[in-house]
Amino acid sequence: MLDKLKDGQTDRLVRALLSLESESECYGFLEDICTVTEIKAMAQRLEVASLLRLGMQYSAIAERTGASTATISRVNKCLLYGADGYKAVLDRVGD
User: Fold this and answer.
1) pLDDT of 5-32, one tens digit each?
2) How far is Cα of residue 24 from the mean position of the Cα atoms in its chain?
């Protein structure tokens, strides 16, 4: 999957994210680079990943987060077979 993502522009985006030094800077960057809908969708997916790791059922996750079962399934697939991005983040910030 990395081969599909990695290029000069994406490298620069990753460096930009890594350069942020505070929550305030991160919020500012996200607000400038994403729509509110995109930010909320990413936040929802992270919450879904957290709840999946806690063993919550799809129906309960859908009710709690408003995520579709398709989104929940996609996040679960990433948790099981993905690049461990969710795992790295959730291990650091907690479930």
Assistant:
1) 899 999 999 999 999 999 999 999 999 9
2) 18
CB-based contact 56:95 (threshold 8 Å): no
Residue 76 near residue 52, CB atoms below 8 Å: yes
| 7, 15 contact by CB (below 8 A) | no
b/e sequence 70-95, b meaning 16+ C-beta within 10 Å: ebbeebbebbeeeeeebeeebeeeee
Q: Residues 48, 67: contact at Cβ < 8 Å?
A: yes
Which residue type occupies 26? Answer: C
**Whether the Cβ atoms of residue 45 and residue 71 lie closer than 8 Å to each other:** yes
Reading the block at residue 60, the tokens are 């309960």
Structure tokens at 38: 């995109």
pTM: 0.92
